[in-house]
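Worked example 3 (structure in, sequence out).
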């Protein structure tokens, strides 16, 4: 592909090759969980003046397209700053935090045993190195034993503004 080389040079100046390849894979994915649902708005009724028949009118905008799969918001400014130079254990732990973040909360439970089940081959010292790295980079902070507060400027699950009010 002729455009890939020039595009690759441009991208590698700001992000890693791994991130670029991940981007290409994401762009090729099919979206799942997209479906049409009916709006909760009332339907319009028409009355035929000749015979008094009442008809419900279906409008084109009665259906909306939604994404029914769970998701979290990752804010690109903070994420770009964060992943530059992040060691693998830090990236694995960050991925775990993003997956485990519950809707409407910025608290996440972290323990070596739970992380190892999801992440797989991670040593205890690697786990603590990852936690220390995420704390240093202002991603998480200890709230109480094994419960960490996640920086809502990086990632949030839900409507962030409602948390501020």
């Amino acid at each position: 592909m002729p455009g890939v080389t020039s595009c690759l040079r441009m991208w590698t100046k700001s992000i890693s090759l791994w991130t670029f390849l991940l981007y290409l894979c994401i762009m090729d994915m099919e979206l799942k969980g997209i479906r049409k649902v009916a709006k909760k708005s009332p339907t319009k009724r028409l009355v035929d003046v000749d015979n008094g028949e009442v008809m419900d009118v279906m409008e084109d905008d009665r259906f909306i397209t939604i994404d029914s799969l769970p998701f979290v918001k990752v804010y690109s400014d903070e994420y770009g700053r964060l992943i530059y130079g992040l060691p693998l254990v830090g990236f694995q732990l960050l991925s775990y935090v993003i997956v485990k973040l519950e809707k409407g909360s910025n608290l996440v439970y972290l323990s070596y045993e739970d992380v190892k089940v999801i992440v797989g081959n991670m040593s205890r010292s690697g786990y603590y190195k990852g936690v220390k790295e995420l704390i240093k980079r202002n991603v998480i902070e200890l709230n109480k034993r094994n419960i960490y507060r996640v920086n809502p400027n990086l990632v949030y699950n839900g409507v962030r503004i409602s948390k501020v009010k």
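Notes: Residues 1-14 have pLDDT under 50 and may be disordered. DSSP finds seven helices and nine strands in the chain.
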